[in-house]
Amino acid sequence: MSEVLPNVSCVTLRGRAVLISGPPGSGKSSLALALMDRGGELVGDDGVTLSQVGELVVATPPPHTEGLIEIRNVGLLEVPTGRAPVAIVINLTSDAERLPLGHGYRLLLGHQIPQVDLYPETPFLALRAEAALEMHGLD
């Protein structure tokens, strides 16, 4: 079973995929770039292919934009891509709670994946996303 999930970005960090969701213009590509700057590898920008492999949901590059990431006001950048099991969904929203008591879940291919809502307008967004992966992401 597989599906292409549009309007999301995805980066691998230490063998785990961080799926980034949010409304258009919320900073999904910018967060992906910041995580890549911290050692991550692009899986997909503006879309990702999800497949079930055993008990895992694995993110792979989408065929139509594989290896491309948008740098707003600059253009498209070609980069190497990776693939990994989805460990967490980072949802960019201005409604994110300041001090949540845990995390929510996103259902992907019938599997519950931890989801953390983050406020997008912060210079420390990549640090928060990385901390969310370590605190709440699947191993």
From TrEMBL:
In terms of InterPro entries, this protein maps to: Hpr_kin/Pase_C, P-loop_NTPase
Task: Using the record's annotation, list all stretches that form the HPr kinase/phosphorylase C-terminal domain.
Answer: 10-81
- Please indicate which superkingdom the organism of origin belongs to: Bacteria
Xref: Pfam families: Hpr_kinase_C (PF07475)
CDD domains on file: HprK_C
Q: What is this protein called?
A: HPr kinase/phosphorylase C-terminal domain-containing protein
